[in-house]
Amino acid sequence: MKDIPAQVIYECIHDPDYRKTWDDRMIEGFLIEQIDECNDIGYYSVAMPFIISNRDWVNRRSWWHNPEMTEFIIFNFSHKHPLVPEKSGFVRAWSYKSGYYMKTTEKGTMFYYFGWNSWNGWIPAWCVNKATKTMVGGVIDSLMKQSAAYEEWKSKNKPEDRPWLRLNDWQRKEKEEYDAKHAGDKKEEETKEEEKK
């Protein structure tokens, strides 16, 4: 993707209010427990296509970004939680590992999604394949289209509320080391700019 920075896509995936604009399969999503600055447990349910029963997940999600805000990872795996038992009307699915990787490059943003899920219940293999292709492809397409409008939307909707961009302790240390390593480069650039004037 040439026109959408990796950080914008990362924020679109994280922002629970904005997710409603691009994930039209989502029925409900909410935070169950915040573990620390880059780990939480959340609930997510989706409307399934055809005659397949709706599915829901309870997942532990982790995320990371580099100090330069050019590389981002979000991944999850299913987790049982006493506050959210299985409920009527949904089949509890299981994520063995699912996630996103985004990186800003000179040519644009590299974007990867992978999913390793068990839908559970009884579904014929052809139906699983069709549902997965339809749902995942549609959701990713919608995410890319809606990402273009995110920054303008966010400027009017809790613009300071971006906990997914905070640096935790080890990321702060990594940033300090990066800044110290490149301080000379920055000073050299500033000197060159001054000389041009």
From TrEMBL:
GO terms for cellular component: cytoplasm. It comes from the Eukaryota. Residues 175-197 are annotated as: Disordered. Coiled coil: none annotated. It holds the Pfam family START. GO terms for molecular function: lipid binding. Signal peptide: none annotated. InterPro entries: START-like_dom_sf, START_lipid-bd_dom, START_lipid_transfer. Residues 1-152 form the START domain. This is PCTP family protein. It comes from Entamoeba histolytica KU27. The lineage of its organism: Eukaryota, Amoebozoa, Evosea, Archamoebae, Mastigamoebida.
